[in-house]
């Protein structure tokens, strides 16, 4: 009876894993074909405002602002919202204002009660923005090409979409922690991009996101989300994005690359904040994510139990073949997704971190879900 029960759990989990890996995540990995890039005369391009909420980001801004000025776009402004910085950011921005014609700044000297810092900074930046098309990123992010503005805002400008959601990668560094970050970032993008391509968007990353100022003001900014630390990107999208008003920008020239965390403590704080925001997702969206994670866990636990308790070599063979098949399928899915998103396809570390994620997801997810207090900076 135990073997029959374990076998049923194992096969059921395998079916759900196949559905996700082939039909859902495969939408990005296997079946996505990039569309021809639209060629638009520069005079027809609507002006764009890039908004960056920055707190003590002097070193990053010193590198980023000159790079943004080189974007191949006819009309844009760079809005830096300086949130109570004490590291010389104010002096840097004052100096840069005389050098870079597209740069504008707003300084926050105090934070009103009952609002969260980053949402307040983004809201202030959007309110004073000259242009209706908004493009959001972070101070530690770098666009990989001069066509970033053009590509990321195209769905909002040309297709009249409310949201254009892009991919934000992390810089590659030596070490296990960085490989873990690379896996987690790609896996997260695989999930939200794939569901988005199936017209069921549920999140985005603020490192690479575009929408209209008029839409933001119409929805009264972060109304209903002010009390939650974080969520200026994923919770805002989760609340308002639909299959009709949202487009996903999948092009290696459209991505941004951020500076990764370099200590496990900092990385765990970041993940705790992300998982904390996740508990406010719509129920259907939590089920989408949770069902894959649960079937993933049950697949390996029940498979291992079958091998341990069974004394039938045929069961060993069947379970072993299915496990190897899933490992190879996961590798192919991640390889295809990475190639479409980044133009690269080396994902040899996938197999190791697929196992690691069994414990990490449930541990950090539970910790983030139960936490009552998280901070931006």
TrEMBL record:
Record's keyword terms, sorted: Glycosyltransferase, Membrane, Transferase, Transmembrane, Transmembrane helix
Family per record: Belongs to the glycosyltransferase 2 family.
Pfam families: Glycos_transf_2
GO molecular function: glycosyltransferase activity
Protein name per Swiss-Prot or TrEMBL: Beta-lactamase regulatory protein
Boundaries of every Glycosyltransferase 2-like domain copy: 49-170
Superkingdom: Bacteria
TM stretches of this protein: 6-25, 289-309, 315-334, 346-363
Source organism of the structure: Anditalea andensis
InterPro entries: Glyco_trans_2-like, Nucleotide-diphossugar_trans
This protein's record includes keyword Transmembrane helix: yes
